């Protein structure tokens, strides 16, 4: 009897992710671009406010600016109106013993210490009767109440959302220093793959992963070079890797990372660089290949020896990640591993998706020894329903679902129990 080949030990999901992320660091290269064109880019430097916001004391009501000390305790509070201050106009200091007509957003005149809203006053010719005793500071938004001059309003590593751009603009930033986009080369292996629009020959299937993965990469703001379908041949795979290594930060492949005779990605990467094959104890997913591909030496230079560990490639190498071919496996491994890896390269500070704790409105009595990522959706009662077919080939589940339940190894789920749920709004962001 022959001895069975020992199986590689399976890595826990968290361990695999930590190893992967420890190899990544933000890419070099920044550019200064107009704030108006910076949506979804990643800040390379802190944005510091050069001014107080609001830049002066402003009124938060339509009413009258007064000096509280001018009001008598007896309530005989008829004051002459000495000026009118609309928003956007610089006021005179408030004459003692008078009130200033003022509007929302207008500058509070020097000397005034409260605003009385117009509903608590009565106009009386050139005077105004004040019918309320305000506290000092009432209805005044103090200069710098939102932002102090010199404070960091957006730290380096922030992904620029619409509201972050608004905040940058509120402190007068017309340009922002952002990191250049991460350059990703992607290709697909499998002689069975056909592009939609082409006739489907016997034994063929459509290349759905090309659309899914390109969409995911584009959503992350990557600059994508799509090499399309590469034949299941060692030479063709090696040639594409060599070409892709030249001008990219990461080469992403899909399919061909198992150990079948038609799986050429593994030997191709080993020949062109270095590779670690990980069996991750997750479902769907399992095989994930990680490594680097050598870059050709520019004329007159020698390529530095790649280090033994899968560390950040210098100019001498390009990162490589090989995803499994099954559509749900490549989708899930992208979301859980490639997304945080790319965001780290992009210089993003917060790369971990946030999970929700939600009630399972289903029972899954069979525990799996792997960490399952189950496609589920939030029902109107706020609980989770499970897609009935959790096969790694069933792409329908990813469109039906709102996210993935992170079910730990060896754990059955009973209806009513609270589970960890990663909404797609977090994983696809
Ligand atoms: P592989 O990882 O190459 O062994 O592929 C595993 C399964 O995924 C096979 O059934 C393939 O036909 C399928 N597959 C591989 N690549 C793709 C793709 N780009 N689009 C859709 N299905 C794929
Ligand atoms: Mg294949």
Automatic annotation (TrEMBL):
InterPro entries: MoaB/Mog-like_dom_sf, MoaB/Mog_dom, MoCF_biosynth_CS, MoeA-like, MoeA_C_domain_IV, MoeA_C_domain_IV_sf, MoeA_linker/N, MoeA_linker/N_sf. Residues 1-23 form the signal peptide. Its EC number is 2.10.1.1. PANTHER family: GEPHYRIN, MOLYBDOPTERIN BIOSYNTHESIS PROTEIN. It catalyses: adenylyl-molybdopterin + molybdate = Mo-molybdopterin + AMP + H(+). Keywords: Magnesium, Metal-binding, Molybdenum, Molybdenum cofactor biosynthesis, Signal, Transferase. Gene3D superfamilies: MoaB/Mog-like domain, MoeA, C-terminal, domain IV, Molybdopterin biosynthesis moea protein, domain 2, Molybdopterin biosynthesis moea protein, domain 3. Pfam families: MoCF_biosynth (PF00994), MoeA_C (PF03454), MoeA_N (PF03453). GO terms for cellular component: cytosol. Its cofactor is Mg(2+). Residues 185-344 form the MoaB/Mog domain. Catalyzes the insertion of molybdate into adenylated molybdopterin with the concomitant release of AMP. It comes from Paraburkholderia phytofirmans (strain DSM 17436 / LMG 22146 / PsJN) (Burkholderia phytofirmans). SUPFAM superfamilies: MoeA C-terminal domain-like, MoeA N-terminal region -like, Molybdenum cofactor biosynthesis proteins. GO terms for molecular function: metal ion binding; molybdopterin molybdotransferase activity. Belongs to the MoeA family. It comes from the Bacteria. This is Molybdopterin molybdenumtransferase. Pathway: Cofactor biosynthesis; molybdopterin biosynthesis. GO terms for biological process: Mo-molybdopterin cofactor biosynthetic process. It is an enzyme of class 2 (transferase).
């Amino acid at each position: 009897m022959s001895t069975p080949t020992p199986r590689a030990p399976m890595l826990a999901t968290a361990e695999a992710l930590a190893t992967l992320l420890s190899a990544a660091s933000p890419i070099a290269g920044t550019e200064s671009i107009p704030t108006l064109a910076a949506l979804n880019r990643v800040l390379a430097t802190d944005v510091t406010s050069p001014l107080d916001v609001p830049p002066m004391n402003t009124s938060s009501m339509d009413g009258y600016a007064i000096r509280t000390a001018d009001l008598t305790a007896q309530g005989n509070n008829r004051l002459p109106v000495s000026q009118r201050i609309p928003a956007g106009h610089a006021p005179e200091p408030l004459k003692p013993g008078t009130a200033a007509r003022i509007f929302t957003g207008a500058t509070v005149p020097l000397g005034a210490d409260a605003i009385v809203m117009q509903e608590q006053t009565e106009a009386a010719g050139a005077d105004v009767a004040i019918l309320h005793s305000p506290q000092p500071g009432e209805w005044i938004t103090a200069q710098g109440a939102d932002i102090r001059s010199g404070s960091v309003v957006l730290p380096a590593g922030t992904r620029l959302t619409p509201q972050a751009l608004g905040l940058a603009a509120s402190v007068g930033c017309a340009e922002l220093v952002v990191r250049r986009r991460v350059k990703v080369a992607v290709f697909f292996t499998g002689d069975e793959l056909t592009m939609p629009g082409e006739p489907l020959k016997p034994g063929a299937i459509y290349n759905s992963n090309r659309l899914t993965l390109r969409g995911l990469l584009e959503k992350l703001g990557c600059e994508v070079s799509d090499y399309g379908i590469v034949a299941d041949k060692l030479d063709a795979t090696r040639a594409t890797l060599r070409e892709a290594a030249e001008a990219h930060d990461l080469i992403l492949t899909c399919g061909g990372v198992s150990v079948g005779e038609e799986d050429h990605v593994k030997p191709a990467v080993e020949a062109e660089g270095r590779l670690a094959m990980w069996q991750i104890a997750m479902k769907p997913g399992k095989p994930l290949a990680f490594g680097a591909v050598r870059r050709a030496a520019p004329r007159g230079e020698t390529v530095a020896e790649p280090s033994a560990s899968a560390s950040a490639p210098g100019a001498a190498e390009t990162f490589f990640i090989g995803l499994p071919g099954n559509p749900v496996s490549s989708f899930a491994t992208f979301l859980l591993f490639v997304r945080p890896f790319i965001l780290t390269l992009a210089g993003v500070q917060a790369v971990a998706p946030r999970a929700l704790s939600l009630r399972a409105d289903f029972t899954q009595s069979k525990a799996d020894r792997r960490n399952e990522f189950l496609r589920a959706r939030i029902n109107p009662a706020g609980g989770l329903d499970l897609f009935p077919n959790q096969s790694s080939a069933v792409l329908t589940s990813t469109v039906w679902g709102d996210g993935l339940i992170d079910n730990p190894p060896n754990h059955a789920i009973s209806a009513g129990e609270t589970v960890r749920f990663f909404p797609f709004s977090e994983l696809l962001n």
